[in-house]
Design goal:
By secondary structure, the chain is mostly helical. The chain has one domain: Up-down Bundle (Growth Hormone, Chain: A), CATH 1.20.1250. It is built from 16 helices and no strands. Helix 1 runs antiparallel to helix 8, helix 2 packs parallel to helix 7 and helix 11 runs antiparallel to helix 12. It starts with 5 loop residues before the first helix and ends in a 15-residue tail after the last helix.
């Protein structure tokens, strides 16, 4: 069997996702795009919505390739496609071109790269699924930490088009270097010297058709969508929300806050991923939804810079937690063998949230009103639904878990 350096694969995957993670800095580009081309905020946000909505296509197709040993191909092709879409977006002169370049091309590329990096790498960490998924998705979240201030600086000096083009060229170079570190994960991989915990049940690998017949799939699906909703609403419009009369924050400060949100997004993926390995995935998810609700209450009641910072810090940590915990939860529930396709299908919930989150934010809180009270209230309700479903899922998994394995690890924890 080929020798696998799983930490090198992890490093290469994080490097690639640091580039594709620029997607979460879109709110920095949104305002300048409207000013440069005369487009409305709703028209611009549709590009972000399309980008997220098409994610299941490359996630599922990429998963099929990954499950058959083609991780490097999926990652390399997807990464270059993302960089190309970014470069072409800088040349867009119509909304049709914006939707094609940023929404479709960059979206397809991001999906292939994300699916390859995530699902291939966590197969190499059966002993630390939550941690590995957290680190991988942390790379995705951290991408906008760098992208936001860089984009802001280029936009100020040379315009929004130049920002897309220059950053896309750099991304193309970096992802090639990252892909060189990638190796496909063998089926049934286990690190040297590691054995499953005593009493832990052997993983049962479900195909996607078998997964769709399990009630747990539908619970996790809705939970993922509910968890991503508020994070995507804020990520897509953080800068415009900050500059409304509700909070009165300047554009320059808003750009800094985009980076702060991104840092928290990245940190949350690692932190919640590691925590979920100990507490159990369903328990961690309940806490995540509860914190989301608290964050939204803060935004509703503290209309100040301090209140806004507290709110986005909490939301960033929780959005990151959702993206870090659910890949591992899916693998734990349905097995590692078909994780690529299975999580690709599960990730469709993210795309639904990517449609409704920004749309509800823009339609109910954008425009001349500048009042995001209603979107914040909707987010609290969605978080409440997530808590209820997480409790139900915990009970479903507890019933199915072998009695011998329950003392060894809490229901939902990594095997």
């Amino acid at each position: 069997m080929q020798t696998i350096n799983r930490w090198r694969v992890l490093a290469g995957s994080v490097l690639v996702l640091l580039c594709t993670g620029a997607i979460y800095a879109f709110s920095v580009f949104a305002g300048p795009l409207t000013s440069a081309h005369g487009w409305t905020m709703g028209q611009v946000m549709l590009a972000f919505t399309i980008n997220g909505a098409i994610a299941p296509i490359p996630m599922i197709a990429g998963g099929y390739i990954i499950d058959r040993g083609g991780a490097r191909l999926a990652i390399f092709g997807g990464s270059l496609l993302f960089a190309l879409g970014f470069i072409l977006t800088g040349t867009a002169s119509s909304t049709t071109q914006l939707y094609l370049y940023y929404g479709l091309i960059a979206g397809l590329g991001q999906g292939f790269a994300y699916s390859g990096c995530l699902n291939n790498t966590i197969k190499l960490f059966p002993d630390r699924r939550g941690l590995a998924a957290g680190l991988i998705t942390m790379g995705m979240g951290a991408g906008s930490v760098v992208a936001a201030p860089v984009a802001q600086a280029i936009i100020k000096s040379s315009g929004v088009g130049a920002a897309f083009v220059r950053m896309g060229i750099v991304y193309a170079v970096v992802v090639v270097l990252g892909t060189l570190l990638i190796q496909p994960a063998p089926n049934g991989y286990a690190p040297a010297g590691w054995t499953p915990p005593t009493g832990a049940a052997a993983p049962v690998n479900h195909t996607w058709t078998e997964m769709l017949r399990k009630p747990a799939f539908y619970l996790i699906f809705v939970m993922l969508g509910a968890g991503a909703f508020s994070g995507l609403l804020i990520a897509s419009q953080l800068s415009p929300i900050a500059q409304t009369k509700m909070f009165g924050i300047s554009a320059a400060t808003a750009a800094v806050l985009v980076s702060i949100y991104s840092i928290c997004n990245a940190a949350g993926r690692f932190a919640w991923g590691a925590v979920s390995d100990r507490l159990g995935y369903t328990t961690a998810v309940v806490f995540i939804y509860a914190v989301v609700a608290v964050a939204m209450v803060v935004l509703l009641t503290l209309h100040s810079t301090v209140g806004f910072v507290i709110g986005i810090v909490l939301l960033g940590l929780c959005f990151g937690g959702v993206m870090g915990v659910f890949p591992a939860l899916t693998m734990k529930t349905f097995g590692p063998r078909f994780q690529g396709v299975n999580y690709g299908i599960m990730f469709s919930a993210y795309s639904i949230a990517a449609y409704f989150g920004p749309k509800i934010g823009a339609s109910m809180g954008g425009g001349a009103k500048g009042d995001y009270t209603n979107p914040f209230i909707v987010s609290i309700v969605v978080a409440g639904v997530g808590i209820a479903l997480a409790v139900v899922l915990g009970r479903v998994l507890a019933v199915k878990a072998p009695a011998a394995s329950r003392p060894a690890a809490q229901v939902g924890a990594a095997s």
